[in-house]
Amino acid sequence: MTIQTEGTRVLEQLNDRSREVFRRVVEGYLDSGSPIGSRSLTRDMSERVSAATIRNVMQDLEYLGLLDSPHISAGRVPTNLGLRLFVDSLLEIAPVDDRDRAALEATFGSNERDVGTLLDRVGTALSGITQGASLVLSPKHEAPIRHIEFVSLAPDRALVVLVFSDGHVENRVFTPPPGQTASSMREAANFLNAMIEGLTLSELRSRFRSEIATRRAEIDDLAQALVESGFAVWENEGEPQERLIVRGRANLLAESPHAEDLERIRRLFDDLERKRDIAEFLELTETGDGVRIFIGAENKLFSLSGSSLVVSPYMNADRKIVGAVGVIGPTRLNYGRIVPIVDYTAQLVGRMLTDRAQD
């Protein structure tokens, strides 16, 4: 990331005293959420320095864009750039402690076979452990399909009912092409059901493209448009249908007693509940394996909230990224603790998916 490169370059320009002042300000802020003053730092520095000297260092760090003065007082808080620099270069990652590890592993201890239910439990456990809001993006269901049905809800809304061979049923709302009729919907469903033959959605899409080219005369143009529209929704072209599980909303509200913070958090959850840019959540993780941290405006999905997101992808048995888990909270998250917890949770989910694929 560009910010990380610039931040590392800035850090290399700091002498030992400036680096220590910066680190202690950030650590103090992450611990208390309050501006850190020069007088309090004089008690913690590794060398004896005056409060005036520390104030001068703080002013230099502020000039570099790493610290900010939220009030007239001498206290400082890290900027988003400062937090990024700290996370990339100075953050000390703690191991997942035994109690947190046991709480996460307990969510997988039941005989529950439904992946969605298990991921729901994972989200609840992750929220409880971190005291933040947890996000779990669950994978699309890839079992063979047994039956498909279209149901008209309104001129611009339709429902597709997907019945899978393992008994799983999904109802998905999508926007049909203009002018669809009950007969064209039945025709489209009949056309698809005749092709299913134990195929998954991905396999059915491939078969559909081939069949539609040779059997155009068997369905009218409107039914064809309906089929194409339905598959576009199912296959994540423009309107993703992965299920986003959000747990722990109250934790974020409890963290923000001020009216402006409450409004910020409400905007965040309005975005989540309307599922805006949910595809972005998974795309954030697709550049590589491992945990990623997004601070404030670095994260397009939650930039309006001014929050931080710690997110990690998880993989299926074929080592393909199929979903993600994460924690969102204020920018003063305890990153050293949250990062390994998110990483461990993603590993557990991937292991669970692999075990179920081998059963």
Automatic annotation (TrEMBL):
Residues 118-339 form the Heat-inducible transcription repressor HrcA C-terminal domain. It comes from the Bacteria. InterPro entries: GAF-like_dom_sf, HrcA, HrcA_C, WH-like_DNA-bd_sf, WH_DNA-bd_sf, WHTH_transcript_rep_HrcA_IDD. Keywords: Repressor, Stress response, Transcription, Transcription regulation. One of its GO terms (biological process) is negative regulation of DNA-templated transcription. One of its GO terms (molecular function) is DNA binding. Belongs to the HrcA family. Negative regulator of class I heat shock genes (grpE-dnaK-dnaJ and groELS operons). Prevents heat-shock induction of these operons. This is Heat-inducible transcription repressor HrcA. It comes from Rhabdonatronobacter sediminivivens. The gene is hrcA.
